[in-house]
Amino acid sequence: FHWLRQKTGASSRFPFPFQPYHIQESFMEALYTALDQGKVGIFESPTGTGKSLSLICGALTWLRNYEEQKKQEAAKLQDGPEKKCDAVKEENSTSQTSEPDWVSEFVQKKAERDIVNKLKDEELKRKKREERLEVIRHNAQLRYAMKRKVSIYYCSRTHSQLAQFVHEVQKSPYGAAVRLVNLGSRQNLCINPEVVRLRNVQMMNDRCLEMQKNKHGQKRHHNLCQFKLLISNHPMIT
């Protein structure tokens, strides 16, 4: 992070539950840069330096800014035609004070015709966009891609580390604004009512494994998990 030492104002750029240390600021700056440039970042920091919280605040700050940037770009595209018309009208009103009436009238009519032509062109482009979107809507994969939002996945080796990470997110400045789910265990993912009702994690694990076994080499479907059978019988898509 040597090149980042010259930068200042990192603590104000990244919301943090307390005054971050320099190593945390450097971590967040480097992480933000990697995300913003679409690169792969490999970071290392000593134990006890608050890597999880730095990762949370750095990544979620980028996500917040990214979504805000997309909203601003969409607003500019929507406001573009109206602002152009207002600018032309304002220009015509100022020129009318210094030109003869017939010149001002000619200029105004020409500007109005230009605006009408531009609006017609934009309407034609809009219809073409709608036609292309209609074609896209019939494609399931593209339809899914259009609805997909930018997501952040945090992976860890143990369930306890995932639980700790969720706790860190909840107590971070973004805790109230971020939705997250722990995809960490049968307790969170299992949808079999017979397993879910047990509630105890160890009992759920034991029952799930028992329902997946093929006793005596024979398929006893009445003892197997119906959801596992459903997945096993579903054709794979490659």
TrEMBL record:
The keyword Transmembrane does not apply. Keywords: ATP-binding, Hydrolase, Nucleotide-binding. Residues 73-100 are annotated as: Disordered. InterPro entries: DinG/Rad3-like (IPR045028), Helic_SF1/SF2_ATP-bd_DinG/Rad3 (IPR014013), Helicase-like_DEXD_c2 (IPR006554), P-loop_NTPase (IPR027417), RAD3-like_helicase_DEAD (IPR010614). Residues 73-92 have a biased composition (Basic and acidic residues). It holds the Pfam family DEAD_2. GO terms for molecular function: ATP binding; DNA binding; DNA helicase activity; hydrolase activity, acting on acid anhydrides, in phosphorus-containing anhydrides. SMART domains: DEXDc2. Residues 10-238 form the Helicase ATP-binding domain. Signal peptide: none annotated. One of its GO terms (biological process) is establishment of sister chromatid cohesion. It comes from the Eukaryota. This is Helicase ATP-binding domain-containing protein. It comes from Sinocyclocheilus anshuiensis.
